[in-house]
Amino acid sequence: MTANKEIKTIGVLTSGGDAPGMNAAIRAVVRRGLSRDINMKGIKKGYSGLINEEIIDMTAVNVSDTIQRGGTILQTARCAEMRTPEGQQAAADVCKKHGIDALVVIGGDGSFAGAQKLANLGINTVGVPGTIDLDIACSEYTIGFDTAVNTAMEAIDKVRDTSTSHERVSVIEVMGRNAGYLALWCGIANGAEDILLPEKYDYDEQKIINNIIDNRKKGKKHHIIINAEGIGHSEAMAKRIEAATGIETRATILGHMQRGGTPTCKDRVYASIMGAKAVDVLLEGKTKRVICYRDGEYIDMDINEALAMKKTISEYQFEVSYSLSHNYSKNPK
Ligand code: ADP
Ligand code: F6P
Known about the structure:
Layout: E1 9-14, H1 22-35, E2 39-43, H2 46-51, E3 55-57, H3 85-97, E4 102-107, H4 109-120, E5 124-129, H5 145-165, E6 169-174, H6 181-189, E7 194-196, H7 205-217, E8 223-228, H8 234-245, E9 249-253, H9 265-283, E10 289-294, E11 297-302, H10 303-308, H11 315-325
Parallel strand pairs: 1-2, 1-4, 4-5, 5-10, 6-8, 6-9, 7-8
Antiparallel strand pairs: 2-3, 10-11
Helix pairs in contact: 1-9, 5-6
The structure holds adenosine-5'-diphosphate and 6-O-phosphono-beta-D-fructofuranose (F6P).
């Protein structure tokens, strides 16, 4: 889709769950825009701040000293009103009132759906994938994943130290309501014995219990179960496992600590390039686009197409992880 008019002012907002690297993306959007003599506006608190006109001028200086910070300097929110036609019209009207010709939306699929609706109402929009969940089908990378997965991995290593010392079973819950990428990556990186993913868990707890008993017989001193937030109930699961196996079992819910902290180099670099690219795409006269990383390239694609895509968990990666943590051989010598 081509832009509906010449762009003089671009707004930027962050929406949905925050992700480390969002500040690097905001900085890139603002500085790339300023370098092209565009007026830059920041919208606070996602779509909620847009509807409530929480709009500030962005300068090169007010994004200074932010690239290394976690969270989002513009703050973020989840906004139910934006899901309604009235809310979407109100948001578009605010853009027009403040002379915002185009909007860069940094967030996940939900945030892109909001950008899609605004584009239909005449506001030029581009989405930048920002979520720790890595669950945006059109892009092989989403800003925040690398930092979050490293934070979770380091925390799980620490839990494993104490779990091994006490010969316990540990159920460790990582974020991901609908997506198991954090869980799968931690499962591989931490050498977990079981990985429970919302996309494929069959709720067969007896299988896990049998695994634990089997591994104990083989001399394993720990049993790490990575449980994705989408399955949840880690405390209750730990109690049931302890009752069935007679082995002390503890649950650890890592929670929101996974979303904070200093972004890794990877997150800063991907965010900087994606943010700059979003401005370039708008200035090329395109709208209703999403920036994606695919096959080693940063590209843009249509939001409708991007939102229609589905991301699946790799069966092969899951199987490899399992085979590296279990029996090794069917006929052990
Ligand atoms: P994410 O962007 O990380 O997927 P959410 O799904 O929570 O996070 O979406 C963030 C915000 O985007 C929502 O709070 C809402 O304001 C907006 N949004 C989500 N879905 C839609 C939709 N279908 N139409 C319009 N706006 C939406
Ligand atoms: O989308 C990012 C995410 O952290 C998910 O992994 C998690 O399910 C959700 O947000 C938690 O949201 P909230 O901050 O509302 O608890």
